[in-house]
From TrEMBL, chains A, B:
Lineage: superkingdom: Bacteria
Residue stretches making up the Amidohydrolase-related domain: 58-405
UniProt xrefs under PANTHER family: AMIDOHYDROLASE-RELATED DOMAIN-CONTAINING PROTEIN, AMINOHYDROLASE SSNA-RELATED
Protein name as it appears in the record: 5-methylthioadenosine/S-adenosylhomocysteine deaminase
Gene name of this polypeptide: mtaD
EC code(s) of this entry: 3.5.4.28, 3.5.4.31
Alphabetical keyword list: Hydrolase, Metal-binding, Zinc
Role: Catalyzes the deamination of 5-methylthioadenosine and S-adenosyl-L-homocysteine into 5-methylthioinosine and S-inosyl-L-homocysteine, respectively. Is also able to deaminate adenosine.
Highest classification ranks of the organism: Bacteria, Bacillati, Bacillota, Bacilli, Bacillales
UniProt-listed InterPro entries: Amidohydro-rel (IPR006680), Deaminase_MtaD/DadD (IPR023512), Metal-dep_hydrolase_composite (IPR011059), Metal_Hydrolase (IPR032466), MTA/SAH_deaminase (IPR050287)
Reaction it catalyzes: S-methyl-5'-thioadenosine + H2O + H(+) = S-methyl-5'-thioinosine + NH4(+); S-adenosyl-L-homocysteine + H2O + H(+) = S-inosyl-L-homocysteine + NH4(+)
Length: 433, 433
């Protein structure tokens, strides 16, 4: 049995019963078996001992909306309108992607996320077995789904859906349960209603959750009204989408009725503030969603629209923007923003009993932050410091499922230098083709 | 003569004549004497040679609004309304500050700024000789001003103004010209009109610029209208404020006429987006200000309202927020945000002929960023990467006035460990008193 004993650490647990622990944590194999102020008694035999002095430990961050392969397009197109960026820049380049490109783009995203403290991520894209293998190798935790766009022939629609189902079946529960799967129509505006209904039926058949993009831009909401006579929330609801556990990304443009319906249906939101700002999509009504009881988690979206995968950035932006835009400086206090990146993230992917907090019996997914730096001084309110002053670059060590996957800032299971070099080569290949 | 020769570097110069140089830069004493793609010829004799591979060099960042000593209050009070935060939390604690507190708060801010790539900062506070000595020792460049609050007896007003004048006289041009000074009424709402007029007269007498807080919150603008029958811009203009070179912080709440007047008077703005969001002050009309020809620079404000002094954060937030709030994804493109943190910052403090760009003849204030990290890959648009993906933690080396003040992430002229420990002690002392 692998045992790890962290001594003299400061633990921001995200567990309301003991939010801050200055003391000890013991991990046995993939689980936390002890956390408390007193030293564990008896002392865990044969444990690897880590001196936690100068480190703050907290749950690994959960990124609930990403498109990892698109990291290959970071910086390729910025400061353009959503539809121009998507249709004129992203789609033509993505159309050229081959398996090799997908592999290195995915690997680049995974090392960036791990090094910046994200231990679990949701990813919607294609060529998903390639990503699943990277996730398996990296030690990371992922909820993966083959997103399907239905603007194609019925035969192609069927082929894509079969591919998505096959992936969801093949990989659900793999890698010691670190990989789970979902099904995903890309968006209401890229999937005809009957296709969405088929995907919903398949999700029931496979007993997996659903993920989609929804109400990211005002134009898209208007198009939904024009095409189907309803706004996207009601539209998806009528198609039975919310009869499955559902995670929807963006949800920027919602009216009060839609918020109430999302709350009633138990739909979780992936709020992507940096991407929404950068693409000028707007500012989601997060304080209203939280007040209504909706689970709001955080996502980076892709590195092509952000342009980084540091979830600490999303946490800080979420804590700042809703104050500034609402005029209420008490909106989204620091602890609530941190919850969005941890416990609420875990809820949004139906794993709150396993991850998102440091608690006896839960999975040992956690990170250690080097707080011996000027921007963490004086050491007053640790949660405030993490949210308003912290960064993924402050992450020193990362463990997932009890295994150390980042040690002193370096990925232990993936070759960072090779991945950066190959990603560069792949990008230059895309430009040349 | 001290000579430095950087070979094989990538230089983001912020000089429109050659924005991107892949090549060489030579520094002699405090000045850049060569920058170009070809190796310098003849080779600079006896130069310290630096291999620039894997590094991006750019001008040091310019933070045009800070209150360094307040770093001691980082995390002491968050998520409160501006007036509550200021009057109930900050002022009582600041009232307890002694020279020792000011020293360690200032030193803490200076090491945080230097390590994150800021080479020049504007600071308005009291006990300014203490800060000036820290700046002198640190090797940093500063524009320092004793901010005065006039809500006190005439005798106290006079004493404060004399202190401010004395400081401005004593320190202007000190530390090889690295320190310059200004005069500063704290704000129109904390200084009676006749006191502002006396400060303006003193600025003329000493030939120094003026700095103040202006139109940070809507409430403050309304109070100005109630008290004086005019909005703050017209009020200050009538008091002769803009007859001096002027830098105003915040300027969140402006109407079209005020923007036109600021442009006409050549007033520079210090835009503090993180602080304005955190205190729910609102979002400044930066795209409109830039269109009107106003110089807009960036400031962190204090670590008590931000809560970090990483100017890369302000650059990214400035690039993101104005897109999201205006609905225009082309608002504040990456390069414009980077200008706000460099060349526009230099303009805002009337030093654009000396700093803010890498150019032959200019002061050697520059930073080196480690781009051999996943979040900078693939290496496509460097400016986009710096703005949307960069962080102060990526800064590896910093030079000011040709002298290396940060080497491999560590301050060379200040003792970081001592400063963090003493800042902690000072904060705990404040709590105990």
């Amino acid at each position: 049995m692998n045992r790890l004993w962290i001594e003299n650490g400061t633990f921001v647990t995200m567990d309301d019963n003991q939010p801050l622990v200055r003391g000890h944590m013991v991990v046995e194999n993939d689980r936390i078996t002890y956390i408390g102020e007193a030293a564990p008694s008896p002392a865990p035999e044969g444990a690897e001992r880590i001196n936690g002095r100068g480190l703050v430990f907290m749950p690994g961050l959960i990124n609930t909306h990403a498109h990892s392969a698109m990291s290959l397009l970071r910086g390729y197109s910025d400061d353009e309108a959503l539809q121009v960026w998507l249709q004129d820049k992203m789609w033509p380049m993505e159309g050229k992607f081959n398996d090799d490109d997908a592999h290195w783009g995915n690997a680049l995203a995974v090392i960036e996320m791990l090094k910046s403290g994200t231990t679990t991520f949701v990813d919607m894209y294609d060529r998903m077995p390639i990503l699943a293998k990277v996730v398996e190798q990296s030690g990371m935790r992922g909820v993966l789904t083959r997103g399907v766009i239905g603007l194609c022939s019925p035969a192609e629609q069927t082929a894509k859906l079969e591919e998505a189902k096959q992936f969801a079946k093949d990989w659900n529960g793999q890698a010691n349960g670190r990989i789970r799967t979902m099904l995903s129509p890309h968006a209401p505006y890229t999937c005809p209603p009957d296709y969405i209904e088929r995907i919903v039926a398949a999700a029931h058949e496979l007993n997996v959750p659903l993920h989609t993009h929804m109400s990211e831009s005002a134009a898209e909401v208007q198009q939904n009204v024009n095409d189907y006579g309803t706004r996207p929330v009601e539209h998806l609801d009528k198609l039975g989408f919310f009869s499955r556990p559902s995670l929807v990304a963006h949800a920027v443009h919602l009216n009060d009725e839609e918020i109430a319906l999302l709350a009633e249906r138990g739909v979780a939101i992936s709020h992507n503030p940096a991407s929404n700002l950068k693409l000028a999509s707007g500012v989601a009504r997060v304080p209203d969603l939280l007040r209504a009881g909706v689970t709001v988690s955080l996502g980076t979206d892709s590195a092509a629209s952000n342009n980084n995968l540091d979830l600490f950035d999303e946490i800080r932006i979420a804590a700042l923007i809703h104050k500034g835009v609402s005029g209420d400086p008490t909106a989204i206090p620091a602890i609530e923003a941190l919850r969005m990146g941890t416990v609420y993230g875990a809820r949004a992917i139906w794993q709150a009993d396993e991850i998102g907090a440091l608690k006896t019996g839960m999975k040992a997914d956690f990170i250690a932050i080097n707080t011996e730096q000027p921007h963490f001084y004086p050491q007053t309110d640790i949660v405030s410091h993490l949210v308003y002053s912290g960064s993924g670059r402050d992450v020193q060590h990362v463990w997932v499922d009890g295994r150390q996957v980042v040690k002193s800032g370096v990925c232990t299971l993936l070759d960072e230098e090779q991945i950066m070099a190959e990603a560069q080569r792949a990008f230059e290949g895309l430009l040349a083709r």
